[in-house]
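User: Could you go from structure to sequence for me? I need the amino acid at each position, not a summary. Structure tokens:
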């Protein structure tokens, strides 16, 4: 029995223990993007669900899940691990799920079943720390945006990101060990598994790097201005991120929260853009962390995509997919 089958059978077994629902998996009935079909039955009531199976559901999967929902509105996610914050987002997106600890959300026809609160143990994982430390995250972001940077000297990287030369060596070796980098022509480096690396970066960025970049929350002196895009940034030191950047890049999303990344002095920005410090304000200001020039009013699209995904908001996730399809797909 492979890992996928183990997850399915364990999920069905635990679901029966918690709810009394009996389940059967039909592996032969597969379609694009699916892992078969599960039939759930209790008494005379019976419902069938297309299924997808994952070891763990991460925030980076939400875009694909939203796309799958458009084709299969009542599909069911079966996973070994779904952490509480992700379960909450799945419910907001009205996505059915069960995990192997007993948590579930099933909504179809007359069924509305919600069981919540069973603890999910952290998985045993390969040590990725060297590649996804704060400095590692800075370098990986640079690599994802400019692969040529892989082949500048380690000394140049150390100077650019103000870290020890030995630290650069450890980060590169960790990426090689995880299969994200390969050597060719004996010395040159090239990225592999770029989409997977991007997904790892998005999750680690939100947890380890972004909280340390926050300068503060603010509101515009005149309130939330519908003409926010007319604010004259006119330089390469301060740029729109997240929702306003997505609006400028896709023309699709009306921002509810404004985000700026900057190299400018906080007091200078407050005066320049007429900002009022406010912990409940709708403008978040972050330090800019990359060491390459972006001549635009928006941060690099990869960062816009990451920030949208990490909100967990269905509206933002839909926009993230549009952004990926339009600007990023060819890179990954």
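Assistant: Here is the amino acid at each position, in order:
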């Amino acid at each position: 029995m492979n890992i996928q089958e183990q997850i399915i059978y364990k999920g069905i077994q635990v679901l029966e223990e918690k709810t009394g629902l009996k389940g059967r998996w039909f592996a032969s009935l597969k379609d694009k993007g699916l892992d078969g079909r599960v039939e759930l039955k209790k008494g005379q009531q019976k419902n069938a669900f297309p299924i997808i199976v994952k070891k763990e559901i991460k925030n980076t999967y939400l875009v694909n899940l939203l796309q799958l929902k458009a084709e299969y509105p009542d599909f069911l996610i079966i996973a070994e691990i779904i952490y509480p914050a992700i379960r909450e987002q799945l419910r907001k997106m009205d996505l059915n799920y069960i995990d192997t600890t007993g948590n579930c959300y099933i909504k179809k026809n007359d069924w509305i079943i919600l069981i919540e609160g069973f603890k999910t143990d952290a998985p045993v994982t390969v040590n990725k720390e060297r590649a996804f430390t704060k400095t590692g995250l800075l370098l990986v972001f640079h690599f994802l945006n400019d692969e040529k940077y892989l082949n500048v000297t380690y000394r140049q990287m150390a100077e650019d990101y103000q870290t020890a030369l030995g630290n650069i060596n450890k980060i590169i070796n960790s990426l090689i060990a995880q299969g994200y980098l390969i050597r060719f022509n004996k010395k040159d480096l090239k990225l592999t598994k770029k989409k997977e690396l991007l997904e790892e970066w998005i999750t680690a960025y939100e947890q380890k790097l972004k909280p340390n970049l926050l300068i503060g929350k603010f509101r515009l002196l005149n309130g939330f201005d519908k003409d926010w895009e007319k604010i004259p940034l006119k330089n390469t030191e301060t740029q729109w991120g997240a929702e306003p950047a997505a609006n400028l890049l896709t023309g699709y999303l009306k921002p509810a929260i404004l985000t700026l990344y900057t190299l400018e002095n906080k007091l200078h920005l407050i005066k320049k853009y007429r900002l009022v410090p406010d912990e409940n304000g709708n403008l978040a200001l972050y330090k800019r962390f990359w060491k390459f020039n972006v001549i635009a009013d928006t941060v690099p699209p990869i960062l816009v995509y990451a920030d949208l995904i990490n909100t967990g908001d269905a509206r933002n996730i839909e926009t993230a997919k549009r952004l990926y399809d339009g600007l990023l797909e060819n890179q990954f």
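One structural detail worth keeping in mind: The two ends are 32 Å apart (CA to CA).
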